[in-house]
């Protein structure tokens, strides 16, 4: 998710400072996102400032350090409008760690390895579904409930992929390549000589 666009969206409602933006972001997207790292947020604000999308002003405080308040610029509004007006491609495309694990396990030719990879992922995803269901039951904000519903559907789609992989790789005769012996290493060759 392009967090800098979410920050611009929050600032479009009015000027704000770092910790206030952090709290607003976390409240807006709900608990499934997790806490936003304040250091990362300040990096985003610095970049937005360099790019002319926000301006900042220091406000002196009696006891605490100066508070830096950020405000969206016309350039920031234009970028936010552009972003909101276009479709969102899948983040990262289909470059997914689990896809690579399935590929590696299948290429090993070992059904037990494939079974282990799929079983571990299925267990993890079922736990995620239970967690999301619990969060969704507690959600009072309709937008957060909607985001939790979307997260649930993503996990359900991932579970469908695990089922597809199970059917294709473990239940279709000849789907797994025949395991090939590992190539001999230099140490193996010198030991046999």
Q: How would you explain this protein's 3D organization?
A:
By secondary structure, this protein is mostly helical. It is 63% helix and 7% strand. It is built from 8 helices and 3 strands, in the order αβααββααααα. The protein has a 3-stranded antiparallel beta sheet with strand order 1-3-2. A hairpin with a 7-residue loop joins β2 (54-59) and β3. α6 (111-138) runs antiparallel to α7. The relative contact order is 0.10. The mean pLDDT is 87.
Quick summary:
By secondary structure, the chain is mainly α. It contains 8 helices and 3 strands, in the order αβααββααααα.
Largest sheet geometry: 3 strands, antiparallel
Oligomer category: single chain
Strand content: 5-15%
How much is the average pLDDT? 87
- What structural category do the secondary elements indicate? mainly alpha
Number of strands: 3
* Sequence of strands across the biggest β-sheet: 1-3-2
Rg result: 24 Å
Query: What fraction, in percent, of the residue positions are helical?
Result: 55-70%
What is the succession of H and E elements?
HEHHEEHHHHH
The rough form would be described as elongated
**Total helical elements:** 8
Q: In terms of per-residue confidence, which ranges show pLDDT below 50 for 5 or more consecutive residues?
A: none
Distance between the termini: 57 Å
């Amino acid at each position: 998710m392009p967090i800098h666009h979410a920050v611009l969206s929050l600032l479009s409602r009015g000027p704000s400072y770092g910790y206030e933006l952090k709290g607003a972001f976390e409240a807006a997207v709900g608990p499934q996102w997790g806490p936003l790292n304040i250091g990362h947020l300040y990096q985003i604000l610095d970049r937005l400032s360099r790019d002319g999308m926000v301006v900042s002003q220091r406000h002196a405080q009696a006891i605490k350090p100066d508070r830096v308040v950020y405000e969206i610029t016309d350039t920031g509004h234009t970028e936010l409008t552009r972003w909101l007006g276009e479709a969102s491609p899948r983040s990262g495309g289909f470059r997914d760690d689990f896809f690579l694990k399935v590929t590696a396990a299948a290429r090993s030719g070992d059904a037990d390895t494939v079974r282990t990879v799929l079983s571990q992922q299925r267990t993890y995803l079922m736990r995620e579904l239970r967690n999301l269901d619990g969060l969704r039951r507690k959600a009072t904000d309709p937008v957060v409930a909607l985001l939790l519903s979307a997260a649930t559907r993503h996990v359900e789609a991932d579970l469908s992929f695990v089922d597809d992989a199970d059917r294709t790789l473990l239940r279709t005769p000849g789907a797994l390549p025949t395991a090939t012996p590992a190539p001999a290493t230099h140490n193996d060759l010198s030991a046999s000589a």
